[in-house]
Design goal:
Layout: H1 9-14, H2 28-44, E1 64-65, E2 68-69, H3 76-80, H4 99-109, E3 117-122, H5 144-157, H6 166-193, H7 201-212, H8 219-231, H9 246-250, H10 260-270, H11 278-285, H12 287-305, H13 308-334, E4 343-345, H14 355-360, H15 367-372, H16 388-398
Antiparallel strand pairs: 1-2, 3-4
Helix pairs in contact: 4-8, 5-13, 6-7, 6-8, 6-13, 6-16, 7-11, 8-10, 12-13
Length: 425
């Protein structure tokens, strides 16, 4: 049963940080990897729109940070293949039947950060220093399914004032906790990405399902992107660093298009455990189906037990409004929590602890703590840093539904996102 892992230092070595600890120079091997994949895609005729809805990787450009206009420093493909890391080679192809290789993969995801913790909170240096490299703005090759999906949800949410009911608001808040708190924060992030605890297969499937109906994409896509974020946090290769602009880090990075070959190589590299998990793959393939079922159930229940107006209210508030809330609160962790706040630990990235994101995101806003000890189940490291997601993990542990919980930072690897992947399956 178990998928617990160890170090990812081999990949770290091949894609180590630059001399200043933040920026990586452009890599010739990166460009060669890009060309090789592009040539393969052209030969196979697989260029074009990606198959999976809502795959999040960047190519949009000029955005802003703290009111300052900036130029992008690299293209989407530069970020997709960094220092040859995303070469399409599965960790399982690298010896020892895949177990050791997958275990090594994990620690590279967390390569961005850990230095000795300081006794006092520090603000550190200026967060999210903008990159000043020159580049042209590229608004072509958008991933239109993602644009339509996220744009459509936001447009539908504009109907909310015209269909307000107190019961609709209650359903919105309840599903915000269920899909955002249990699905994204607990399921996608602490369980599937970092292996902060282990649970039964049915519970694992349930948490992945709840994360899926958050609307943020399938577990495979979400986890692959997040693991890569930890591997290149606030460096070249980070999909969503505010160093490329606050709005970019918040949401614009979601919208570029990539070929199927690129996507397959990316997920195979960064989520090798999940692409072999039949339940997670099933949810990946049926991503839209669950939203249709949930929306239909909300509409039918409100209409049946009350009236048509209530049914529409439940649909709009329980689906569209709730998804917009979950979207932006999750995105604030990527943007605001790398720009403002205080630091308990000196890390080589720009991560910060931001109290209001911590409250809105069920403990995810204690982001500097998390980047310092990524596998640790508890993100709140001081008494006032409330972490409801960790409380749920403790509750599951108390009834036997969670085990191997990483409660403290002592005796654990300091760089880990796939820490629990290799021994599971």
């Amino acid at each position: 049963m178990g998928m617990v892992a160890a170090g990812f230092d081999a990949v770290l070595t091949s894609a180590g940080p630059g001399s200043d600890g933040f920026r990586l120079p452009k890599s010739q091997s990166s460009r060669q990897s890009i060309k090789a994949v592009d040539d393969t895609a052209a030969a196979r005729g697989t260029t074009g729109h990606r198959s999976a809805l809502l795959y999040h990787l960047p190519r949009l450009s000029t955005t802003f940070i703290r009111g300052r206009t900036m130029s992008p420093h690299s293209t989407a493909s530069d970020r997709f293949f960094d220092a040859g890391v995303d070469d399409g080679t599965d960790a399982s192809d690298q010896g020892n039947g895949g177990g050791t290789a997958v275990a090594e993969l994990c620690d590279a995801f967390g390569r961005s950060a850990i230095h000795d913790p300081r006794g006092d909170m520090t603000t550190g240096g200026p967060a999210a220093e903008p990159r000043n490299e020159n580049g042209a703005a590229h608004w072509a090759d958008l991933d239109w399914p993602s644009v339509i999906w996220i744009g459509g949800v936001h447009l539908a949410a504009l109907l909310a004032p015209f269909y307000f009911t107190w019961s609709g608001l209650a359903i919105c808040l309840a599903l915000y906790w269920v899909t955002g708190g249990l699905g994204v924060c607990l399921g996608y992030h602490r369980l599937l990405t970092h292996g902060s605890f282990q649970t039964t297969k049915p519970m694992r499937f349930l948490f992945a399902l709840l994360g899926g109906v958050s609307g943020e994409g399938s577990a495979i896509d979400w986890v692959a992107n997040h693991r890569k974020h930890h591997a290149f946090s606030d460096q070249d290769g980070d999909p969503h660093t505010p160093r490329d602009g606050g709005l970019w880090a918040h949401m614009l990075w979601i919208f570029p298009q990539h070929t199927r070959v690129e996507l397959a190589a990316h997920t195979k590299r960064w989520a090798p455990d999940l692409v072999k998990d039949k339940g997670v793959v099933f949810l990946h393939k049926t991503f839209l189906v669950w939203h249709i079922l949930l929306g239909s159930a909300l509409l039918a229940a409100g209409w049946t037990f009350f009236d048509r107006f209530t049914g529409v209210s439940w649909l709009i508030w329980g689906l569209a409004v709730r998804m917009v809330i979950v979207f932006h609160i999750t995105w604030l962790v990527n943007s605001a929590s790398h720009m403002w706040g205080y630091r308990n630990y000196e890390t080589t990235d720009d991560s910060r602890n931001l109290w209001w994101v911590g409250l809105l995101a069920f403990g995810e806003g204690w982001h500097n703590n998390h980047h310092a000890y990524q596998r640790m189940a508890a993100h709140g490291h001081r008494w006032w840093e409330l972490d409801p997601t960790y409380w749920v993990i403790r509750g599951l542990e108390s009834v036997g539904l969670a085990w191997d919980v990483v409660h403290t930072r002592h005796g654990i690897s300091r760089k880990p996102p796939l820490q629990a992947a290799a021994n599971r399956a």
